[in-house]
Each structure stands twice: as C-alpha cells, then as structure tokens.
C-alpha cells in the first residue's frame, strides 16, 4: 500500500514539479552563460536543482569529510558511479564549484545537454584519436582557470553495484596540471536508482570525501600515474559497501 501511494505521489506531484524545475534550470543556465556567468550560475543553479531532486524523492543525504577540502583549492574529484543519483548527490552536496567530465552523447538531451555544453562542462568525445586529443585540450583550457573537475573514472554506471576498473583520462589531466586528487566514495545510490530501472526508491546516500592525494614528486611517468590510479581506487573502495544486484 505504501509503495503504491509513493508511486502515485511521484507520478502526480514530484515528477511534474521536477520536470518543470529541470526545464527552468536549463533555460536560466543557458541565459546566465550567455552573459558570461558560466563559472558561477553555471554551478549554483544546478546545485539547488539537484537538492530538489533529493528532497522531493525522499532521498536523505549524509556527507562526511568536508573538512578535507578547501573551497579555494582546485582538485580533480574521482568518484565511483553507482547510479543516476550520483549526479544529484555531487551537484547538490559536494559544496565545491566544479565542472563535470561527461560523455559527449549527453549533449543530445533536450535543453539539459545544451545547458551542460554552454556551462563549459567537459564533453568527452571518443570517436577518434583526434577527437580525444581535442577533448583533452578543451579540458586543459577549463582547468587553467583554477576550476575543479569531477569524474567517474569507471566511465559508466555500475550494472551490478560493484566498482569497476578506472580509465586514465582524469588522472592524465590531474598529472598534467599537478592537481591533487580527491577520492569520493558513494554508498546507497545503487539502491535508490539502478542503471537498469527508472524507479526511484526513497533511501539514504552517503558521500565520503577523502583526504586529497598529492601528485607524486619528481618526473612524471606512466608508472607514477598507475600508482596514483591504484591509490585512488583503493581509497574509494576502503569505505565502499558494494550493493548486490
């Protein structure tokens, strides 16, 4: 009975409100970016939009480790990717201005995709070696301004609740600019909304912000980057409660 009432509430009240909020957030973000406000309103408008998605869907959020980061410092944040609610969790509750590194295919989402593009989030194009190189160049321009970056190095949401091997892209950028890496562990998002389902279940998501991992000293090398990837992976996994599919 309670589940039925929940679905009725979501369909009749929450989803219509969130659909309107999503449209308005995208439109106002596009307008703000047209006036050169991508750095500020390109973050703060989606920040409150993301919180609304959690509040209206009865998703509680708990954050630990905020004392580990400085709002005036640039980082490359690395997070495991349990589900769609990871987006709302980080946008709404990390409380640190950043840009996403996301798939270029997301540009096709009406209004939202264009809003992400003009907000100068980094769109990853893997269609060719030239496209990948262009993606990296665009990322460098954005990070040169002292901006932070959030990446899901697994590349996509986990289908079974278990963490997958990391890809190198974010670590290459962090190494190039000498930026510290901050591992983020997300727990609970898989249960709230799985990759294989459109159902949103009330629940609790926790975000653990780990201490920054500084870039290794000395000459850059492939071995040092592999060590950085391994340390980031193990740090995230240290507080990860892997869900069962």
What would you note in describing this structure?
The chain has eight helices and seven strands; from the N terminus they run ααββαβαβαβαβαβα. With 245 residues, it is α/β, with parallel strands linked by helices. It has one domain: Glycerol-3-phosphate (1)-acyltransferase (3-Layer(aba) Sandwich). It has a seven-stranded mixed β-sheet, sandwiched between helices. β3, α4 and β4 form a beta-alpha-beta unit. The longest helix has 33 residues. The radius of gyration is 18 Å and the shape is globular. The two termini are 24 Å apart. The mean pLDDT is 89.
Structural descriptors:
245 residues; alpha/beta; Glycerol-3-phosphate (1)-acyltransferase; seven-stranded mixed sheet; 8 helices; 7 strands; 15% strand; globular
Summarize the structure.
The mean pLDDT is 89. The chain is α/β, with parallel strands linked by helices and 245 residues long.
Give the C-level CATH assignment.
Answer: Alpha Beta
User: Could you name the CATH topology?
Assistant: Glycerol-3-phosphate (1)-acyltransferase
| Overall structural domain count | 1
Order of helices and strands: HHEEHEHEHEHEHEH
Task: Walk across the major sheet and give the strand order.
Answer: 1-7-6-2-5-3-4
Q: Radius of gyration, Cα only, in angstroms?
A: 18 Å
What can be said about the biggest beta sheet? Answer: 7 strands, mixed
Give the N-terminus to C-terminus distance in angstroms. Answer: 24 Å
CATH architecture: 3-Layer(aba) Sandwich
Estimate percent helicity: 40-55%
> Structural class given helices, strands, pairing?
alpha/beta
**How would you state the average pLDDT, rounded?**
89
Strand content: 15-25%
Question: What name goes with the CATH superfamily?
Answer: Glycerol-3-phosphate (1)-acyltransferase
Shape designation: globular
Unreliable stretches (pLDDT < 50, length at least 5) are none
- Say how many strands there are: 7
Number of helices: 8
